[in-house]
Amino acid sequence: MRLRNTFALLLLTASATLSGAQNFTDVKPSPQQVAWQDLEFGVILHFGTNTFLNREWGDGTASPSVFNPTQFDPDQWMKAIKASGATYVVMVAKHHDGFCLWPTKQTDYSIAASPWKDGKGDMVGEVAKAAHANGLKFGVYLSPWDRHEPKYKDSAAYDSYYRAELEELATRYGDLVEFWLDGAGSEGHVYNFPKIIETLRTYQPNTIVFADTALFEYGDARWAGDESGKIAYENWNVIDRHGYLRWRPIEIDTPLRKLHWFWHPHDEASLKSLDELLDGYENSVGRGGQWMIGVAPDDRGLLPDSDVQRLHELGDAIKNRYAHNLALHHLPADINSQRALDGDLDTFWSAPEGSHQATLEVHFAAPVAVSRTLTMEWLVNGQNVQRYRIEAWSNNAWTTLVTGNAIGHKKIDSFAATTTQRVRLTILSSAGTARIREFQVFSENPAAK
After folding, report:
1. Of 45, 110, 216, 434, which is the most buried if we count CB atoms within 10 A?
2. Rg (CA), the chain
3. Which pLDDT band, with edges at 50, 70 and 90, does 449 fall under?
């Protein structure tokens, strides 16, 4: 639904100067990008007049009077989201219909004109407060496309309007972990993106800006290309845009209910199964990306019971699958190797300086059945591993379990269960010195330790 079309948008001013290293492996992330990638899993919340009109795409004509959730409880949302394993939420503060979920001073088309709390509420504020109270970081989505606001026909006038809305959001709700820029519906419209991002950065210098790859100079993270919830290609954090290279990690967005970002009545059949969600997790987070699922409150202002249950099931399944890292119980190893086997994300194993091939081994006291590994690169110095192999010692020889390419932030590899006392990661090719933050080993049976 969102970002279905590439950001084919013109900038009013010259793009920012693009300079620096022009080799993929020389490009490194900012500290803000590193911290954001460690969050791994977020939720985007869609709630608005569409919720009450059984719509996905509002046209800007809905009356604010339809918006009146009588049991609004953002704490209920956040407890379910927290249980799923998510670490942050992004609230759709204004969707394409232009209806604002905070009492903006820029338009009357907002919750201030609705019957909810007699027009005196601030839904964005309450959601932000509930997120923080439940240990979740908070961000906002502010649609550039606005089907209600008359100023939209005048690019310069609308830019001023949009920046004023953004300034309100950027100054009222604490630190914003992410700001979503959506390209849907905006083909051919002229936006002054340098000024928009300048406004954001004035008040929120550390916020990660998510946008389509075409918004190359100003986005910090990029869209995966579809809404399947999976990465279907080799994932490198560095991308090339018109001959310039930038660190732009992927965020993979997908709704909890198939094809539906907003809640719809009598729609239980569209809720994704636990297996579908686990597959999405392992092919997004497990392929070095950021996973964002869409969650939608119903017309009561509550998450449906079925959605709450599924979010709890998802969190329990992820914990069950990845809570028992066999590598923590390895036989004594050298200090360098221990840094990748200790479960500590602040330490890393390093291949010999200047090398392009290396091996990291885990040795167990007794045979264990292994069926999955989790490998993380230390990305502060860039993404270097180009090809690797996971092997197990069997019948007095090393047997290949899986061969892969990019590792990046996190790579999950599954393979047929193999009983062994030794597992190793072999770096077959790296552009620079390989540094491995974590090498974890798991059994198909989590109870097997």
Report:
1. 434
2. 23
3. very low
266 lies in which domain range?
10-322
> What are the φ/ψ torsions at residue 2 (nearest 5 degrees)?
-100, 150
Per-residue model confidence as pLDDT tens digits over 20-31: 547 888 899 999
Residue 449, domain member (yes or no): no
Same domain, 304 and 358: no
Distances (CA, A) of 32 to 29, 85, 156, 208: 8, 21, 31, 7
Q: Report the range of poorest mean pLDDT among 59-68, 227-236, 287-296, 363-372.
A: 227-236
Rounded distance, CA 135 to CA 153, Å?
41
Of 269, 302, 322, the one marking the end of a domain is 322
Report the pLDDT value the prediction gives residue 445, as an integer from 0 to 100. Answer: 66
Cα 341–Cα 342–Cα 345 angle in degrees, nearest 5: 100
Distances (CA, A) of 428 to 62, 167, 437: 58, 49, 17
Residues 21, 92 share a domain: yes
The neighbour count for residue 367, using CB atoms within 10 Å, is: 11
Domain boundary, last residue among 293, 322, 351:
322
Rounded CA gap, 356 and 433, in Å?
6
pLDDT in tens, 266-320: 999 999 999 999 999 999 999 999 999 999 999 999 999 999 999 999 999 999 9
Tell me, yes or no, whether 352 and 225 share the same domain: no
Asked whether residue 448 is domain-assigned, the answer is: no
Same domain for 415 and 389: yes
Instruction: Answer yes or no: do 349 and 280 share one domain.
Output: no
Q: Is the dihedral of CA 90, 95, 101, 102 positive or negative?
A: positive
Q: Are 101 and 63 in contact (CB under 8 A)?
A: no
Place of tokens 């719509």: 55
User: Do 215 and 263 fall within a single domain?
Assistant: yes
Residue 145's CATH number:
3.20.20.80
Amino acid making up residue 376: M
* Residue 386 three-state SS: strand
- The answer to whether 211 and 223 have CB atoms below 8 angstroms apart is yes
What's the CATH number where 359 sits?
Answer: 2.60.120.260
Same domain for 262 and 221: yes
Q: What is the C-alpha to C-alpha distance for residues 289 and 59, in angstroms, rounded to an integer?
A: 33
Please count the residues of the chain.
449
Check whether residue 284 and residue 355 sit in a common domain: no
The reply to whether 157 falls in a domain is yes
Say if 168 falls within a structural domain.
yes
Average pLDDT over residues 114-140: 98
Distance from C-alpha of 403 to C-alpha of 418, rounded to nearest angstrom: 15
Tens digit of each residue's pLDDT (9 = 90 or more) over 317-356: 999 999 999 999 999 999 999 999 999 999 999 999 999 9
